[in-house]
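Service request form, structural biology core

Requester: graduate student, group of Dr. S.
Request type: structure prediction, single chain
Budget code: on file
Notes: please return the result as structure tokens.

Sequence provided:
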Amino acid sequence: MMLPKITGTEFTKRRDRLVERMHERAIDMAVLFSNLLDPSAVRYFSDFSAVNESAAMVILPDKKTTLCSGQASYDYALVKNRLSESEIKVFPEIGEVSGFEYDFAGQLNFKTFFKDIQTGYNVKRIGIAGRLTFPAIIFNALKEIFPQAEIVDIDGDIYAFRMIKSEEEIACMDKSAQIISDVFFECMPQTKAGMTELEIQALLEASMLTKGAESYVQAFAPMVASGPENSYISMCRNTLRHIQESEIISIAAGSCYEGYNGIICTPHILGKIPKVIRDAVMCAFDALEAASAKMKPGAGAADILNTYTAYLEKYGYIEFCPYGSLHSTGLLECEAPVFSVENNREIRENMTMCIDAYFKGMTWGSFRIEDCYVIEKSGARQMTSYNKKVLPKVFGF
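Core staff response, request fulfilled:
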């Protein structure tokens, strides 16, 4: 069976589309930066994500493209780069963060590289991507070599490209969602009272890797937040706390396949389920069902999210809901754009999205339910399957 992947021709189309946008915005050079927290910009155009370093890409209006690697990841860049006509160069500024000094033949620095570009191109406007992580050492080199150039943000342009997924991307998203769904089906029955949060994390990670994930989602490792105090923390690191029967265990985990992320968040209980927890989980589940039914091409975010909050208000849980999140997903588990009542963004066909219910601060703890969807002509198709199949059965609603 052929496994889904992004072909080389798609990477070329992406680069060419960005070059077209550069011409539209009169941008003479684009500089993209990615690191371990957000590998998405460079990977989107090349399939390269540095192992223990950062990465960059420089694109010029004539389509000349340079993939920029650190020293240690250079061989991996040679193997992974899918943009065949691009060149690969090594820069110490994006190498290992300790500033480890390699004796690497052909090593440049960004000042020298930008000076070479300056001799052949009239650079008056520079677009940068990765603005929240873009390093000062590269930014300052740009300012020094091109002191008169205007530097503008192109993150929004790239996120706009990524918002609507191709058939290949949806296939990869489906595979990632299948992996993480199968992980939960396999691992949740294996959890037992007395296990630590870290032991459950180990179960989840081992399962996703054996099922073909390249890793867990880049944003976070699997989170197993147990009991009233630990579950109160929205994003956390797991501990040696032993899980107990009849207490809330809020589990969040996702798999990364070919760079694309599938995510599930779910409440988990061992043994007898207290009625107060059962009622809250049922309300959150039903509210998400009502909201996701509205996720159709042409729908506005306000109608979807207002449906969700109206359900919580009706059943008395709105005070425990800091937010109901509706966001795009893909190369990042949570990526732009976010959808809110205020911006009322339109849902469009071939978006891949997450919607979640976050119930926080009840006396017995907190939990989240989250799933991935793809928007098809007829509406939203849920890609992750664990919550829909298991929660009504286990919690008895």
